[in-house]
Amino acid sequence: MTRFPRRAPHLFLLGGVLALSACGSSDSGDTSGKWTAGDLHVHTTQSDDSRTTQTLDFVLGKAFATYKLDWMAITNHLRSSKYDNDGKLLAAPVPFAYGMESYEMPRVKALQANGTYADKLIFSGFEWDTPTHDHIGVALFEGPENALSTSAGGTKEFQYAFTTLAESAFPAADAARFKAKYPQRFNTTASDALQAIAWLKTNYPTTSFATINHPSRNPGKYTVQDFRQMNDLAPDVMFMIEGMVGNQMEPDRGGYTSAYTAANAPNRTYGGTDWVVAQVGGVWDALLGEGRRIWNIADSDSHFEIDAASNSSGYYPGEYSKNHVWQESGATGVAGLKKSLRDGRMFGVFGDLIDALDFRVSGSTGSGAMGQEIKVPAGERVNVTIRFKSPAINNYQKPVDSGTIGNMKPVVDHVDLIVGDVTGKAQPGTAAYAVATNSSTRVVRRFTAADWKADGDGYFTVTASVEVQKSQYFRLRGTNLGTDVPGLTANGEPLADRQISGADNTARVNAINERNYASLWFYSNPVFVGVGS
Question: How does DSSP classify residue 213?
Fold first, then answer.
């Protein structure tokens, strides 16, 4: 088994509020349901920056046959497509919404009907070039709740109203119909972006969602005010941030290519994770500190892995990044997945560092898991239970993309329990609306193998007692790294990822892969604890 060297972490106690105990097992409290794994950000050859080898059938095979995902969104760019599903050149480019309807959706339906992927949830969405911002992933559905499917008509209308694709690119009859409905197109300003989100809320209030993709990849594309505005406008549509970004095979991890200057520190990845989520007390914590239900997700952003010219982009769906989502029994199909995503019952992980996580907070009034909230009286001690396990090996390959598994056993070095105060929503027009930090957020305990105990099911379990005086949220972060690994961590915090360069193509792509598998992380979504009745 391959392991990367680690440095011993340090244990500490802050404020004298925690008392630790270990136990062999923990009842999850979930009597009916299951964990599923999937990816919300995947491209095929129909995206203009993909490759013709990244056919729909190829990607589906990687996602489901090779890497055993349960569900996946196909999210090609909402631009124009010049290829069909098989990478064959079309007679003329078509707006993506029309290619999605003509090629992508029928092929998925056929593969599910013939039994190839009958037990998999596969649906089409798109990645939108959001006016003045970076990308937002969108999926919108229609039909009866127990059989929702992607709305091709809605996607066509969205593409006309909210993108810069020339009117002449659309079929003449559709262009005339859309122009009558939208004499002015909304594709230029930040206000136009909000118009699009309002359109989703109006037309698909319970059957759409949107994710803010790679938020800090380019300077100045998003502010904390943008996140607040979008969530305020449509909280049941805009509730996910892709903090654990894809494109991990890029020389600049995540494709975060801004100049390596101090001013661009927020535009780096930290252990492969966007600054918005990776910074303790940063943007995500500022949003959670308002009590906002905004969740972190992990995606592949798969375009291709390594092309014929030795360019590298991202891992295949399920290979390196996974979103683990709890789905209750009966919560099936698109509607069931959307509910589970909206409820926040999920965690993201790189390199299969863990493949199961039961994280909950219990008090006198009950128990809450990720995405949930319990209420307790001020001064009560609540019990925090963390129960996780790791697979025997992950998908590490040596050489990369060779099909030769490198027999790496992922091992958690430590898990951080992070706590922040919840003080209520900031109001538009106030100074608080622009505050991008939460000064109350801190790591209150760092657990290591000295603290947890293995049970017969292969889980490691640790519990902690925490006194709660005010409303708070609890979240977890774990890694295979020690607390002070040169170039990777300092005092337990992830450092900015370094660029991998070099003229030797083989050496470069393998060095990128080694960098990524040397730095594995998981992030849970929070459990909220409200003080009061």
Answer: -
Question: Is residue 127 scored above 90 in pLDDT?
Answer: yes
User: How far is it, in rounded angstroms, from Cα 371 to Cα 346?
Assistant: 8
The closest alpha carbon to 292, from 231, 360, 359, belongs to: 231
Burial status of residue 116 (CB atoms within 10 A of its CB: 0-12, 13-18, 19 or more)? middle
CB burial string 314-344: b at 16+ within 10 A, e below: bbbbbbbbbbbbbbbeebebbbbbbebbbbb
Tokens of 533: 């009745």
Confidence of residue 456 (pLDDT cuts 50, 70, 90): confident
User: Residue 291: pLDDT above 70?
Assistant: yes
387: left (phi over 0), alpha (psi -120 to 50) or beta: beta
d(CA 522, CA 329): 25
Cβ neighbors of 188 (< 8 A, separation 6 or more) are 131, 132, 164
- The number of CA neighbours under 13 Å toward the Cβ of 303 is 20
Residue 212's pLDDT is what? 98
Transcribe 463-529 into DSSP letters: EEEEEESS-EEEEEEEESS-S--TTTEETTEEPBPPP---S-HHHHHHHHHHHHHTS-EEEEPPEEE
Q: Over range 298-325, report the average pLDDT.
A: 97
What are 180-216's pLDDT values in tens digits? 999 999 999 999 999 999 999 999 999 999 999 999 9
**Residues near 299 by beta carbon (within 8 Å), at least 6 away in sequence:** 39, 40, 41, 42, 211, 213, 242, 244, 245, 246, 321, 323
CA-based radius of gyration for the chain:
23
For residues 71 and 38, the answer to whether their CB atoms sit within 8 Å is yes
* Rounded Cα distance, 45 and 34, in Å: 33
225: burial class by Cβ within 10 Å (0-12, 13-18, 19+)? Answer: middle
Give me the torsion for CA of 313, 325, 359, 388, rounded to 10°.
Answer: -60
Alpha carbon separation from 428 to 226, 230, 238, 290, 346 (Å, rounded): 11, 12, 17, 13, 29
In 20-136, which residue ranges form alpha helices assigned H by DSSP? Answer: 56-60, 96-99, 105-113
Average pLDDT over the chain, rounded to an integer? 93
Q: How many CB atoms lie within 10 A of CB 503?
A: 6
Q: Is the pLDDT of residue 245 over 60?
A: yes
- What SS3 state is found at 19? strand
- Round to whole Å and give the CA distance between 452 and 461: 5
The whole-angstrom separation of Cα 9 and Cα 499 is 26
- pLDDT of 30: 57
Whether the CA torsion 239, 412, 316, 313 is positive or negative: it is: positive
The two tokens of residue 499 are 């660029």
pLDDT digits (tens, 9 = 90+) for 14-35: 333 333 333 333 334 455 889 9
